[in-house]
């Protein structure tokens, strides 16, 4: 399968503290990879490197074999179109002053994506199962689940090859979590975009991903298919995560 987003020996320190240490990771077309780890394991830092928001101190990030590093927005537009973020918190991430339609169209405008943006917004609202009448509303008028649907639609807008989701359901009520996880799964299946989902929630990874990499204190402790890694965990890091209280409603996973 075509390798899309690849981290090689990615290392990052903040002051004297090494937060990531030689992380190798590859995301291929069609993959749904969970990056699982306890709080402080380095998950968000790894995402910032994968998104070229920050540069590794050592090692590198490549997309379709092309190195990517933080750069002025115009220079990275090709990469921003290809790799889109679904943020953690739908309350904080959507601009309160913009309408839903403006929010979804924003990446199309910023990244100068050709085509009829209005038509694309209508298509995206349908894809995430939002009533077209919501297009003129502002985020304050929406529920948490609806806001996360808007965030997914926005991420899908430029037809990315990889969707990166950062703890996409941790800010939501338990009842809405399963719905949003299923939406992400469906969005990646339908659009053909690979999905990278950071989480500390085993049940969320099990529901959405087919591969998992367990991050422990800045290193990949183990990786493999969800079935193999969760079926026969090879490290204490994985066993501890599996022993943690399930976060999805009983019977949902
Ligand atoms: N910009 C920064 N400056 C200094 N330290 C940082 C910075 N970003 C992260 N860290 C530290 O790096 C470590 C890993 O943080 P990171 O947010 O990547 O972990 P995480 O696995 O995403 O944790 P959580 O699940 O709690 O979000 C933490 O100890 C954190 O305090």
TrEMBL record:
Listed PROSITE patterns: ABC_TRANSPORTER_1, ABC_TRANSPORTER_2
Domain of life: Bacteria
Residue span(s) of domain ABC transporter: 5-242
Keywords from the UniProt entry: ATP-binding, Nucleotide-binding, Transport
Cleavable signal peptide: none
Molecular functions (GO terms): ATP binding
Similarity remark: Belongs to the ABC transporter superfamily.
Protein name per its UniProtKB record: Dipeptide/oligopeptide/nickel ABC transporter ATP-binding protein
Organism: Actinoplanes sandaracinus
């Amino acid at each position: 399968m075509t390798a899309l987003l690849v981290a090689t020996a990615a290392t990052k320190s903040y002051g004297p503290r090494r937060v990531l240490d030689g992380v190798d990771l590859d995301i291929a077309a069609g993959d749904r990879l969970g990056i699982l780890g306890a709080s402080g394991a380095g998950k968000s830092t790894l995402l910032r490197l994968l998104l070229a928001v920050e540069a590794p101190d050592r090692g590198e990030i490549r997309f379709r074999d092309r190195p990517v590093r933080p750069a002025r927005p115009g220079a990275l537009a090709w990469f921003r179109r290809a790799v889109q973020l679904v943020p953690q918190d739908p309350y904080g991430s959507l601009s309160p002053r913009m309408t839903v339609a403006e929010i979804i169209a924003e990446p199309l405008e910023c990244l100068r994506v050709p085509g009829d943006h209005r038509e694309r917004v209508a298509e995206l609202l349908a894809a995430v199962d939002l009533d077209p009448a919501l297009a003129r509303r502002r985020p304050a008028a929406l529920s948490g689940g609806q806001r996360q649907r808007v965030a997914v639609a926005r991420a899908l807008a430029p037809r990315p090859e990889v969707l990166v989701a950062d703890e996409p359901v941790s800010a939501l009520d338990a009842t809405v979590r399963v719905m949003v996880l299923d939406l992400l799964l469906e969005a990646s299946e339908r659009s053909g975009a690979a999905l990278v989902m950071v989480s500390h929630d085993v049940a969320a990874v099990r529901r959405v991903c087919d591969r998992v990499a367990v991050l422990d204190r800045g290193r990949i402790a183990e990786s493999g298919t969800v079935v193999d890694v969760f079926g026969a965990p090879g490290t204490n890091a994985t066993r501890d995560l599996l022993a943690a209280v399930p976060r999805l409603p009983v019977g949902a996973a």
